[in-house]
Design a protein that fits this description.
The complex is a heterodimer of chains A (287) and B (148). Chain A has 287 residues and is of the alpha/beta class. Chain A is built from 12 helices and 9 strands. Chain A folds into 2 domains: 122 residues, Rhodanese-like domain (Oxidized Rhodanese, domain 1); 121 residues, Oxidized Rhodanese, domain 1, CATH 3.40.250. In chain A, the strands form 2 sheets. Chain A has a 5-stranded parallel sheet. A 4-stranded parallel sheet of chain A has the order 7-6-8-9, with helices on both faces. The longest helix of chain A has 13 residues. Chain B has one domain: Alpha-Beta Complex (Sufe protein. Chain: A). The chains are: A alpha/beta (287), B mainly alpha (148).
């Protein structure tokens, strides 16, 4: 049994180790994708053979506050040479927070053949593994995308209002200062993009990075994660959970943990998150 | 009030680069020149008062007065992958250290878009603007202190 399999996850095969990546660099059935918050990282050096999927340029609608549609996703996957049976393996900076964001968007289109590199970019670097600046080019695929399905993994404003009114569980994955609203009250601090600070009533605070080991960015064991989300935050695997942060980037990491590592069947990411809720007229806020 | 001439020149240079890859490579090269704040000025753990608000790369800024009354700006970036923050730090140090404080105080935060383009995530742009804003604020405080 591998070290990842020994951690007790419900779906251990959604994570791959850096060793596994190293031994699959030339596997034609694998497409390694780097997705970062920092746009300079991929060009500065990346895992050999990895392509870049940039959240801002590749996954977002340029006009509407929304993600790309079916045609855009199809073009993207054809461009990076991914077909339906290609396993897309995501990694990125800061404990894979943007890698899980990209992974989550791919799930909206039903591309389940996807994994995350445990430890992300920093682990690969710290292990002294090779980087290259060469940008690979793959033959375009004939990928046929499905329509984006927002029902399963995505929550919207009105659904969240209903959720909080029904006192259903929510996890706020931002920092304690953002959760309490203290952040917006500090003088001279740039506005976080919201007029009001605090959290959605009933949401429990579990900062997203608590799910990883700080020394190497790997995910904690299932037992440790249950301690966080169940013992401390009171979640149960059968719950209908909504997670959020500022724009859904950090909460997609928590979504990944709850859904894939702990096997929760009903987890949705509210990507409008605090940028929307903190500016929304008339909705309840707690501090 | 005009912004410092060196900053204008740098922004003009970046703006003249039409090819995105070329601009990115220039910024990566700039990040490679990053030097951390000298220990004589600050050592870890850095004070919270020096931390740039909203910067996920954990950037810190330390002003050092020059004999002529202007400021040198020194930086620390705790995120080892904070390459954009390092590039921004080098640009700010190169163009604003030693510049007239009244001009530094007027530098608008949205020069970040002139440097990096518009394709920045909200969090990244807020962190980088936080760096610019903090440098401007430090200059403004210095000016106000001198006038008091």
């Amino acid at each position: 049994m591998s070290e990842i399999e020994n951690r007790g996850y419900v779906n251990p095969d959604v994570l791959v180790s850096t060793d596994w990546v190293a031994s699959h660099l030339n596997d034609p059935k694998i497409r390694i994708v780097e997705s970062n918050e920092d746009p300079l990282l991929y060009p500065s050096g990346h895992i050999p053979g990895a392509v870049e999927v940039d959240w801002t340029r590749d996954l977002n609608d340029p006009v509407r506050r929304d993600y790309l549609g079916k045609e855009g996703f199809q073009s993207l996957l054809r461009r990076i040479g991914v077909s339906k049976d290609t396993t897309v393996v995501f990694y990125g900076d800061k404990n894979n927070w943007w890698a899980t964001y990209a992974y989550w968007v791919f799930q909206l289109f039903g591309h389940e053949n996807a994994k995350i590199v445990d430890g992300g970019r920093i682990k690969w670097l710290n292990e002294g593994r090779p980087l290259t600046k060469d940008v690979p080019s793959y033959p375009a695929s004939d990928y046929v995308a499905s329509e984006r399905d927002d029902k399963k993994f995505r929550a919207f404003r009105d659904q969240v209002l209903e959720h909080t009114n029904a006192k259903k569980p929510m996890i706020d994955v931002r920092s304690p200062a953002e959760y309490s609203g203290e952040r917006l009250h500090m003088p001279d601090y740039p506005n976080e993009g919201a007029l009001r600070g605090g959290h959605i009533p009933g949401a429990k605070s579990v900062p997203w990075a608590k799910a990883v080991n700080p020394e190497d960015g790997t995910f904690k064991t299932a037992e440790e994660l249950r301690g966080l989300y169940e013992t401390e935050a009171g979640l149960k695997p059968e719950d209908d959970v909504v997670v959020y942060c500022r724009i859904g980037e950090r909460s997609s990491h928590t979504w990944f943990v709850l859904r894939n590592l702990l096997g929760y069947k009903q987890v949705r990411n509210y990507d409008g998150s605090w940028t929307e809720w903190g500016n929304l007229v008339g909705v309840p806020i707690e501090r | 009030m005009a912004i410092p001439e060196k900053l204008t020149q740098t922004l003009d240079l970046l703006g003249s680069i039409a090819d995105r890859s070329e601009r990115i490579q220039l910024l990566i090269d700039l990040a490679g020149r990053f030097e951390e704040v000298p220990p004589r000025l600050a050592q870890r753990p850095y004070p919270e008062t020096a931390q740039v608000p909203a910067c996920e790369s954990e950037a810190y800024i330390f002003p050092e007065p020059r004999p002529d009354g202007t400021l040198d700006f020194h930086f620390a970036v705790e995120n080892p992958q904070g390459i954009s923050a390092k590039a921004m730090a080098v640009i700010l140090d190169d163009t604003l250290s030693g510049a007239p404080l009244e001009q530094v105080a007027e530098v608008p935060s949205d020069i970040v878009y002139d440097v990096f383009g518009r394709e920045l995530s909200m969090g990244k742009s807020m962190g980088l603007m936080g760096m610019v804003g903090m440098v401007a604020k430090l200059a403004k405080k210095r000016v106000e202190g001198a006038e008091a």
